[in-house]
């Protein structure tokens, strides 16, 4: 009798088998400037620099998604510092994961689990909410899923008269 489609059992070579052990996801390891290699630090990967041309470590360094916000989860302590044409003190191996993006969005769309986009550009760079209205790691022309509603934004009033709510977008999938 064949195994049901929803069963964890399968038939292989005429034998009934079970799937192997479930292994945890392997961490993403990349290289980052040694001055920046701190667990908990977040950054948006900007892609290749012209100075990367010919570097022997390109495959370890240029392995992230451009425009994605990442969080360093661990610094590989036993790894050596490697010479780098971009980072004056060299690069170190770190483990990273995609990170949520804090952002201000229109209040009418600010519900956990919903898709929304940013309200639009803001020229008021001195506003305490500017970093959330123009967040690193999110673009104005994309919709993102809200993971968490954080509440009121840090400004007292919006100079563009926008009704905004501070949220966290879900991390982008690798």
Give a quick summary of the entry:
This protein is mainly beta and 174 residues long. The protein has helices spanning 58-61, 130-133, and strands at 10-12, 15-17, 28-33, 42-44, 69-75, 91-98, 101-106, 115-116, 144-151, 164-169. It is globular, with a radius of gyration of 22 Å.
Verbal overview:
The protein has 174 residues and is mainly beta. It has two domains: 28-98, no CATH class; 101-169, no CATH class. 5% of the residues lie in helices and 30% in strands. It is built from two helices and ten strands. It has helices at 58-61, 130-133; strands spanning 10-12, 15-17, 28-33, 42-44, 69-75, 91-98, 101-106, 115-116, 144-151, 164-169. It has a four-stranded antiparallel beta sheet, with no helix packed on it. The protein has a four-stranded antiparallel beta sheet with strand order 7-10-9-8. The longest helix has 4 residues, at 58-61. It is globular. It starts with 9 loop residues before the first strand and ends in a 5-residue tail after the last strand. The mean pLDDT is 89.
Secondary structure topology:
Blueprint: E1 10-12, E2 15-17, E3 28-33, E4 42-44, H1 58-61, E5 69-75, E6 91-98, E7 101-106, E8 115-116, H2 130-133, E9 144-151, E10 164-169
Strand order of the largest sheet: 3-6-5-4
Mean pLDDT: 89
Helix proportion range: under 10%
Secondary-structure-derived class: mainly beta
Q: Show unreliable segments.
A: none
Radius of gyration: 22 Å
Domain count, please report it: 2
Count the helices. How many? 2
What proportion strand?
25-35%
* Ends distance: 39 Å
Shape: globular
